[in-house]
């Protein structure tokens, strides 16, 4: 079974080592980890490189049985937007979805810290300087992310990892792989031509 390994680790200088470590964890559970770092297989000079990369990653996702998304906050209080897109894409394909975060603080608290002194009371909640209400569901990220994981039969593994190890610690990731292996073995292959 093939698992798409979404996350912002692709931006790390040592992403090849992280990819290999994650793929080794997947292999230990009888799964094949697909890390999104391969260059486009069919160069087409008529399209920009970023379009070719997008098309290849979409094809990779369609060919996978499930996704494990690293939802650790990235450059702000929420998960990487590319990873969020990939999670939504796989959810729309009806594939099992699993996520993890190496930050235990809740989304609302992280958002309030990002807003800082510009936060203002609004009824029972808080809003930012632009009048946008701060989500207050006491979740680890936006409700659509956790809702999607729940609806897809997956889980969200949460750990608090020191900042210096946040992008390389594989504890929560390993728990997701274990859960994915269990779920995928209990059902027929979900790979489709969707």
What can you see in these coordinates?
The protein is α/β, with parallel strands linked by helices and 194 residues long. The chain has two domains: 2-104 and 141-185, 3-Layer(aba) Sandwich (Rossmann fold), CATH 3.40.50; 106-139, no CATH class. 38% of the residues lie in helices and 14% in strands. It contains six helices and seven strands, in the order E-H-E-H-E-H-E-H-E-E-H-E-H. The protein has helices spanning 15-28, 49-62, 81-92, 107-115, 143-151, 171-185, and strands spanning 2-6, 32-34, 66-70, 97-101, 120-122, 125-127, 156-158. Strands 2-1-3-4-7 form a five-stranded parallel β-sheet, with helices on both faces. A two-stranded antiparallel ribbon has the order 5-6. Strand 5 and strand 6 (125-127) form a beta hairpin. It is globular. One of its GO terms (biological process) is deoxyribonucleoside monophosphate catabolic process. GO terms for molecular function: 5-hydroxymethyl-dUMP N-hydrolase activity. InterPro entries: 2'-dNMP_N-hydrolase, Nucleoside_deoxyribTrfase. It holds the Pfam family Nuc_deoxyrib_tr. This is Nucleoside 2-deoxyribosyltransferase.
């Amino acid at each position: 079974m093939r698992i798409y390994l979404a996350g912002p680790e692709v931006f790390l200088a040592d992403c090849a080592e992280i990819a290999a470590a994650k793929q080794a964890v997947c292999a230990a559970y009888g799964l094949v980890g697909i890390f999104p770092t391969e260059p486009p297989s069919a160069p087409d000079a008529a399209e920009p490189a970023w379009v070719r990369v997008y098309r290849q990653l979409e094809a990779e996702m369609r060919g996978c049985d499930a996704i494990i998304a690293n939802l650790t906050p990235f450059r702000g209080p929420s998960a990487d937007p590319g990873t969020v897109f990939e999670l939504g894409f796989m959810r729309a394909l009806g594939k099992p979805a699993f996520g993890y975060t190496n930050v235990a603080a809740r989304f609302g608290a992280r958002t309030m810290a990002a807003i800082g002194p510009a936060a203002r009371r609004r009824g029972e909640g808080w809003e930012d300087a632009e009048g946008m209400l701060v989500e207050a569901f006491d979740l680890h990220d936006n409700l659509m992310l956790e809702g999607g994981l729940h609806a897809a039969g997956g889980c969200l593994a949460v750990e608090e990892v020191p900042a210096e190890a946040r992008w390389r610690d594989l504890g929560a990731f390993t728990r997701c792989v274990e859960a994915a292996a269990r779920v995928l073995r209990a059902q027929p292959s979900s790979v489709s031509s969707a």
